[in-house]
Amino acid sequence: MKQTMLAVTRETYGGPDVMCLSRVDRPIPKADQVLVEVEATSVNPFDWHQLTGRPWLVRLPALFKPSVRILGADIAGTVVAVGDQIQDFKPGEAVFGDINFGAFAQFAIAQPHMLARRPDGVTVEDAGVVGIAGLTALQAVRDWGRVQAGEKVLINGASGGVGAYAVQIAIAFGAEVTGVCSAANTALVRRLGADRVIDYKSTDFATEQVRYDVVIDLVANRGPRAIGRILADNGRWVLVALNIPRFLVSSLFGRWLLGGSNKTTTFKIAEIRQDDLATLARMLAEGQIRSVIDRSFSLEDVPKAMSYLATKRAKGKVAIRLE
Ligand SMILES: NC(=O)c1ccc[n+]([C@@H]2O[C@H](COP(=O)([O-])OP(=O)(O)OC[C@H]3O[C@@H](n4cnc5c(N)ncnc54)[C@H](OP(=O)(O)O)[C@@H]3O)[C@@H](O)[C@H]2O)c1
User: Fold this and answer.
1) What positions does the domain Enoyl reductase (ER) occupy (predicted)?
2) Given ligand 1 and candidates 162, 189, 247, 315, which is best to mutate, with the most ligand atoms within 8 Å of its CB?
3) How many domains does the chain divide into?
4) What's the CATH number where 58 sits?
5) How far apart are CA 138 and CA 121, in angstroms?
6) What is the distance in angstroms between the CA of the first residue and the CA of the last residue of the chain?
């Protein structure tokens, strides 16, 4: 007899109200897959784009009816079964990662490179929210921004899911960090270790006299001319926020608009890499970074968690905790 599980499913593109708790078949891992019992996950703007089908680019694989019924990328839980080809994981191991889809359920299928072991001392909730946001922050600081010790780094959107990790990772890399957020979150960003915090309602960071080596931009509310003014020679503007018009203008005319041939713009999509997940696990275990969890919801309340994320006011991560 087929085993079943609870999952939050959707049949159409739309808002959180198209999601509902359903009983569905429990997935069976193929030879190269791992089956994980989900204990924690979180909501990300990635899930929101997949849910709503906006921007339209995300609908390319399925224009009118989504091909994926169960969303949820971040995951932490326990391996319950592995396919014949899997050598790296075995049942009973505590794992976490980013599986793109399927984590808003009691059980989820993962490709092994999307998982890493959860060390003792890292809670399931802390590991369950780190996936997309942690990978993005690590790759933005280390790979796209090439942040070096002693450099001045500005993080626009420092109190959100990606920003809270980016502040801590940039500090771990030895940078001098300025975070931009609202007054309500300045204390949080300071506690994360930022050297300076700018409240965007009272100060426009783009009119500052300071010159930054790297701007990690999770909001993309300023254009290349404004960013160019605050970038030092060889400065790097790392556009992380998904803003297609801004990305197109910046990639076509960025060098000219930034006001210096040695200033650059980068926009990349974070990659799921097992060694980066392992780096995040080590940083969490050693206390170099911590997960900031604003609110926790149950599986049934994933639609409420998505609605909260959509307010763009979350402080750090919005977690989903399964029984
Ligand atoms: N390129 C990639 O691979 C990739 C990967 C992940 C995410 N992203 C993108 O990165 C962006 C951030 O993601 P996230 O998960 O961090 O989102 P999030 O958690 O929803 O961000 C919420 C935070 O944004 C802050 N914020 C809102 N308006 C702001 C403003 N005008 N200035 C400064 N901060 C502001 C809020 O702080 P206040 O309440 O203090 O305003 C809040 O703490 C999204 O656009 C997402 O799509 C891209």
Assistant:
1) 14-320
2) 162
3) 2
4) 3.90.180.10
5) 21
6) 24
